[in-house]
Amino acid sequence: MLPVVAFPFEDFYIDTHHMTHQLEPREQQILFYIGLLAAALGIGGIRAILCPMGAYSLQGYNQHQLLSFFNWFYWLVNLNSTVVFLGIAYIQQSVAKNLGFLIPFTSVLLALIAIHMMRNKLTYKPKKGGSLLTTLGVFLNSLKMCCLHYRHLSGDVASWLDRAKENNGGRYSETHVENVKVLAKLFPLYGLQLLYRACITQIPSGYYIQTMNSNLHLHDLLLPIGAMNVISILPLLLLAPLIECVTTCYLSKEITPLAPAKVITLGHACAALSVLVAGLFELQRKAYPLVEQTLSGKVLQVSSMPCFQLAPQYILLGLAEALVTPACSLISFQLTPSHIRGISLHFLTLSYGGGCFLGAFIIQLVYFTSGGNFYPNILHDGNLERFFFLLATLMAINTFVFWSISHRYMDLSVQGKALTVSSLTEKLLQYKACLRFYDTVDRSYTNTSIESIL
User: Fold this and answer.
1) How far apart are CA 294 and CA 303, in angstroms?
2) Strand, helix or coil at 297?
3) What angle do CA 446, 452, 453 make, to 5 degrees?
4) Is the model's pTM score more than 0.90?
């Protein structure tokens, strides 16, 4: 669908007669957004399911084995991205444009056939109380109980989530609520990934615009803009084997490796430094004289600064991604009970998506407040560096906040364990709640009677 509306090739329809499709601009726009929505739903579904599906088979593994799994998992993901940027982009640009869309379609079709053949081994049924609906139900029931002020039934509680317990007038057992409370302790970790992910989204947005307005010529060869994305992927491909070797050497010498929380702090600092470097390079790029450069048939006035001078900001973001993503997955997996670990990884993936929306929101907010000055038609006349400096300041604050609370996620030796309560104990808690209710009603009735007599 996307090739037809977004890339209307003249030879897309070839029959005995040479034909071109005659779609109106409005129809092209409708089909284009439908295609993008379908692609977004597919990518979101794969990212939300693929990592938890692989992690379900890791129950009982130690911390080093889990970190090794997440390192190599994301290494394979980025290896696929490298193949896409280098292989498919080259085929589409140099060999045949239509093959650039036929290859991903064929790959996805073969993957669907393989998954359908192995569906019996890939199906995982969560234990009772480990579903996403139960987890969300505990939050909603707790909010409902807090809003309705059922304090005369439950009294004071240690946490607002405790109001969802059956012995406090809620609908869920103590086991479910306690497990959700363990999950809720990871929410600060998820929240602090939003701004970090907003920095990562600068690769296809702010960094892309900056590269497009730089000199893309390498001698007589015009480089594609996406070639700079490969530079950000290279640290990911190189660091995963290096981290694996260093961790193995540390463990063989009985030296404790760096804690995942400290690794995340270091990655956040690299992201803040990358955006700061991008702002400095933007000032340098604007100091170069303008030259004409043809992109997609359009002649643009761009800076004569070579685009490879922007490589350090891409490398720093790639380094940050190599450090942060596996460590966050390890903490989310290790600190939660076994039957809600998939939900924990789902929330982590949700924070990544929320960070993309936050990045788009910040860009739009800065665009409207500046009156389009940060992103003008001619970038040389804008102030993109101010946006980068603003984002670097926010990311530095985000890094400091995470460092101040990182002690909560330092000790991963105590794994998240599900609270188990026997059925007899739950029955006793229900009877206790009933006695508390009738005791409250009896007292209120007695007080009313005494007041009427007086």
Assistant:
1) 13
2) coil
3) 90
4) no
